[in-house]
Write a structure and sequence with these properties.
Blueprint: H1 5-13, E1 20-25, E2 28-33, E3 36-42, E4 45-49, H2 54-60, E5 65-69, E6 72-79, H3 82-85, H4 88-104, H5 110-113
C-alpha cells in the first residue's frame, strides 16, 4: 500500500486555500487551485511554481529545483522550505504566490523550462 501521509499532511496544511485539488501524476501528485497547476508532491517533498522574482526566495533559503530524474532539472519549481511547510498560514501565502505565477505566466518553450544541459535527449 502506498504511503500518502505527506500528501495528506500537505493538503491539510493548505486547508484554508479554497479550490485545491490533487491528482496522481508520474509517481507523484500535482496540486491544482481552480484548475491552475501550481505544485508538485514528489518523494515526500513539496515543490511550488516560481518565477524570476519568487524563485529568489527559495534560492536564498538554500532550496533546490525539482529534479524528476538525475538527468532533468525543472527550473520553475522549487522545494518549499520546511519552516514554511510547517506553518499553514505562511504555506498558504507562498501557495498563493505560486498560483499567481502559474496564472500570469506566458507560455514557455520546452527549452526554457529546463536548466541548460539537463534535458533528456
Amino acid at each position: 500500500m502506498k504511503d500518502d501521509s505527506f500528501k495528506e499532511f500537505t493538503l491539510d496544511q493548505l486547508r484554508d486555500l479554497d479550490g485545491v485539488s490533487c491528482r496522481a501524476m508520474f509517481g507523484g501528485h500535482g496540486l491544482y487551485c481552480n484548475g491552475a497547476f501550481f505544485a508538485i508532491i514528489f518523494n515526500g517533498r513539496l515543490y511550488f511554481k516560481t518565477d524570476t522574482t519568487t524563485g529568489k526566495q527559495y534560492i536564498e533559503k538554500g532550496m533546490k529545483p525539482f529534479r524528476p530524474s538525475a538527468n532533468q532539472k525543472l527550473k520553475t519549481y522549487y522545494e518549499v522550505p520546511a519552516d514554511i511547510l510547517e506553518d499553514p498560514e505562511l504555506l498558504t501565502v507562498w501557495a498563493r504566490k505560486a498560483i499567481k505565477c502559474q496564472s500570469q505566466k506566458k507560455p514557455l518553450g520546452r527549452d526554457e523550462c529546463y536548466e541548460e544541459g539537463s534535458r533528456l535527449r
